[in-house]
Amino acid sequence: MARETDVEVVIIGGGVVGLSCAYELAQSGRRVAVLERRAVLGAETSTHNSGIIHAGIYYPAGSLRARLCVAGRQRLTQRLVDWRIDHAICGKLIVAVDENEEPLLAALLDQGRANGVDDLRLITAREALEREPCIAARAALLSPSTGVFDVEDYLRTLAGHVQAAGGMMITEADAIAVDRSAARLIVQTREKGKLTARFVVNAAGLYADEAARLCGDERHTIYPCRGEYATVIPAKARLIRGLVYPPPEHLSLGVHLTKTIFGELLIGPTAQYISQKNNYEWGRMEPREFLSPAQRLCPALRESDLRWGPSGIRPKRYGPGEAAADFFIERQPDDPRIVHLVGIESPGLTAAPAIGEMVRTMILETDS
Question: In this structure, are strands 199-202 and 306-316 parallel, antiparallel, or unpaired?
């Protein structure tokens, strides 16, 4: 790459959200460059999860998380078909193990319907056991349109479509400064020189607060929250056929059972605030610590069935004890050439196609 490159839009962050923004802008004819600080696209957050296609059940009606998840799922599912990405719309059961949890299912049903998820239904224990014979359930909420997919293949294909439309992928390019003093924005990288652009999109995930500060926006703080998984040995992975969840918790959707697109059975994720954004492994839980929540859903699991699994870090906008926050997707108040996307955690993977469309609209409106 030349020491100075001129494009229309620089996107800071090469995860699924940044690539989705790049895809929409490149398809609309914009010259786009994606800057990714790591050597591999999506290696920070996008591939550190279980690859769920969420329906949009859990989030407050009217919130960005709800609206963009519902819209994003429709677009994502169609892309997976069109691009021949390995996926399965296997459905999900949210399970009430005891009678105290049954009202929570009814509340989730109402919440999902308010968000436009119109295929949810409450089912009996018998119906739940027909779908998942090895679980414990008094009742369940069935989400038929929930599924799993191959995230890494999707990211590679998405990046390929961006490049086919003329977009650039610049890896190992850590943005270290944004100069706003001229007619065009100047983005300086540590390793790959500088780029000039009409617009900058901050899709830096865990580092979105730091990227915002480079642009002169001091409003944002990311609180890293690690989620850990245990895996189940292959001989016992057959115990679960699809996706089995408890009612959600404050920080996450609860420790659940996920049969991935590759046939692996995951238990997790947990939720723990950490001080370092790159601490995926230090101080991790022992696999046996996953047994109790796992057995509550699937009593046949044993401690000897569990092994270490992957981990990921959520880029939360709220810290310990604070109320949950919505996605932040806005232009910078003192410089509308810059769009910030902050706190794009779950269901960001599913919502990403709709986020890309929203950012494209914002750029085009500013440019008109």
Answer: unpaired
